[in-house]
């Protein structure tokens, strides 16, 4: 921490040009193809989660998108000056950031937080999951090599040394100036309880609605891409599909064409026993591919050996219906809805159990339905006609900030509904000047109220 504070004091004097060089250095450290592959291979080898191909794509795409978002963004000195209000905003560093990161994305998530922190001229100390330590350590070494090219201090980016434990992470949280925590809800609660300002994320358990107006093959392709990507390590991966009864059977056919395999009742029972022993998700099956999961459930059938994802039918919600919760694996629960209103009711039931605040997917040709979801459901994002896990954290074809940490608001017991971005890593000082008074007329202010309620 002392080293981080000394390094941050140096960075606090950087101008925008040098700050942006820091950002580029950290970005290139993970995006350079050979290093990207090394980090992806190490991630799979150490954690046993996901697959190398998709981790390479995630490291590249998420970092490139973040760098696009940050290009030209002011984060040093005056960042806005509005004559109409007389307000000038000045960006200031926060200090030392504690970045708590998960094993599911041991390269992309630390990189995202590091880059955002550096954009604000902060130092950052990564508290990785124990399984992800080797990746975080290697990433930091790559960043330090790039820092050497521009004369930046290594201690701007550090990783808690192994063996990482809860006590060490909690002490880091207490001493830091800001915590950005991604991972288990236990880590998020610890961050909020530390006494240090914190941004956390809510539990994932995404549901997506497929309406009768949707292009079924397009929807099935997007869902398959999202559900199978990196073996569903993302909290933004669909866990449940709510299908309009009018297109239920055709949509099953479309999902089958996209690589999904629907299990029968007996197969479903065997999968549930394997995936949820004792009612809890089996750690050994998290982020494994569909054939591996099927084999672990003693499901041996030619159609399962090539499956991209598995599907089971479901009707209920809650602990007695474990398929209604987050599965962190390429397994989808299917619900049948009598109408769009019924579909929203089903999503409400799912989120009352798990996943409130995160987001909901919609595949539909009716634009007004997205607004209905946004007005009614407890979600921070409505993702329309897109591959959910690709789109939720920002995409090149939507306007959400690129991020791997999605706030879920009060619904998910978070302090923000935003995709974590560089502005969360800034203190902002505001200069307020006198301006002509704008004193409202009381009669005008209360006109509607008096007309309704009287004086």
Molecular structure report:
It is a single chain. The chain is an alpha/beta fold and 455 residues long. The protein is built from 18 helices and 15 strands. Strands 10-11-12-9-8-13-14 form a 7-stranded parallel beta sheet, sandwiched between helices. The longest helix is centred in the N-terminal third of the chain and has 19 residues.
Summarize this structure briefly.
42% of the residues lie in helices and 16% in strands. With 455 residues, it is α/β, with parallel strands linked by helices.
Shape: globular
Number of helices: 18
CATH class (first level) name of the largest domain:
Alpha Beta
- Helix and strand content put the structural class at alpha/beta
| Average pLDDT figure | 96
Strand order of the largest sheet: 10-11-12-9-8-13-14
**CATH architecture assignment name of the largest domain:** 3-Layer(aba) Sandwich
Strand count, sense and barrel status of the largest sheet are: 7 strands, parallel
What is the CATH superfamily label of the largest domain?
A: Aldehyde Dehydrogenase, Chain A, domain 1
First CA to last CA: what distance?
Answer: 60 Å
Q: Looking at CATH, which topology of the largest domain would you report? A: Aldehyde Dehydrogenase, Chain A, domain 1
Please give the share of residues in helix. Answer: 40-55%
DSSP strand count: 15
Topology:
Layout: H1 2-11, H2 16-31, H3 33-47, H4 52-70, E1 77-82, E2 87-93, E3 96-100, H5 108-119, E4 123-127, H6 133-150, E5 157-159, H7 166-175, E6 178-181, H8 185-193, E7 198-199, E8 206-210, H9 216-228, E9 238-244, H10 248-257, E10 260-262, H11 265-275, H12 290-296, H13 302-305, E11 309-313, E12 331-337, H14 340-353, E13 360-363, H15 367-376, E14 382-384, H16 388-391, E15 426-432, H17 442-445, H18 447-453
Parallel strand pairs: 3-4, 3-6, 4-5, 6-7, 8-9, 8-13, 9-12, 10-11, 11-12, 13-14
Antiparallel strand pairs: 1-2, 2-15
């Amino acid at each position: 921490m002392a080293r981080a504070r000394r390094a941050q004091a140096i960075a606090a004097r950087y101008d925008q040009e040098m700050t942006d060089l820091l950002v580029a250095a950290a970005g290139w450290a993970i995006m350079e193809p050979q290093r990207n592959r090394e980090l992806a291979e190490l991630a799979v080898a150490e954690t046993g989660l996901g697959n190398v191909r998709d981790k390479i794509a995630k490291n590249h795409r998420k970092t490139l998108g973040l760098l696009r978002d940050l290009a030209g963004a002011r984060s040093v000195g005056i960042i806005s000056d509005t004559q109409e209000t007389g307000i000038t905003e000045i960006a200031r560093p926060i200090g030392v950031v504690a970045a708590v990161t998960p094993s599911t994305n041991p390269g992309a998530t630390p990189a995202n937080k590091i880059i955002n922190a550096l954009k604000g001229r902060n130092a950052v100390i990564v508290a990785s999951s124990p399984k992800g330590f080797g990746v975080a350590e290697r990433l930091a070494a790559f960043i330090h090599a790039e820092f050497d090219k521009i004369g930046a201090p290594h201690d701007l980016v550090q990783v808690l040394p192994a063996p990482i434990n809860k006590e060490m992470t909690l002490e880091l949280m207490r001493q830091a100036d800001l915590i950005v925590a991604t991972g288990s809800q236990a880590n998020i609660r610890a961050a909020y309880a530390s006494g240090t300002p914190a941004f956390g994320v809510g539990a994932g358990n995404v549901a997506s609605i497929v309406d009768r107006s949707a292009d079924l093959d397009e929807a099935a392709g997007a869902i398959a891409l999202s559900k199978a990507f990196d073996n569903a390590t993302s909290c933004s991966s669909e866990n449940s599909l709510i299908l309009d009864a009018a297109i239920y059977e055709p949509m099953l056919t479309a999902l089958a064409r996209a690589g999904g395999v629907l299990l029968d009742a007996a197969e479903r029972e065997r999968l549930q026993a394997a995936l949820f022993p004792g009612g809890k998700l089996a750690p050994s099956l998290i982020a494994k591919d569909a054939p591996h999961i099927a084999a672990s459930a003693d499901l041996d059938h030619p159609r399962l050996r090539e499956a991209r994802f598995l599907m089971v039918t479901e009707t209920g919600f809650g602990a007695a219906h474990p398929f209604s919760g987050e599965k962190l694996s390429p397994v989808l629960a299917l619900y049948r809805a009598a109408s769009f209103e019924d579909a929203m009711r089903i999503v409400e039931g799912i989120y009352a159990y798990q996943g409130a605040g995160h987001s909901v997917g919609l595949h539909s040709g009716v634009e007004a339905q997205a607004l209905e979801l946004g007005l009614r459901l407890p979600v921070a994002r409505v993702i329309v006609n897109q591959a959910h896990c690709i789109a939720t954290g920002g995409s090149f074809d939507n306007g959400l900030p690129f991020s791997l940490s999605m706030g879920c608001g009060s619904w998910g017991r978070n302090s923000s509904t935003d995709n974590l971005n560089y502005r969360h890593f800034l203190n902002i000082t505001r200069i307020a000047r006198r301006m002509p008074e704008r004193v409202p007329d009381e009669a005008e202010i209360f006109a509607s109220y008096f007309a309704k309620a009287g004086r």
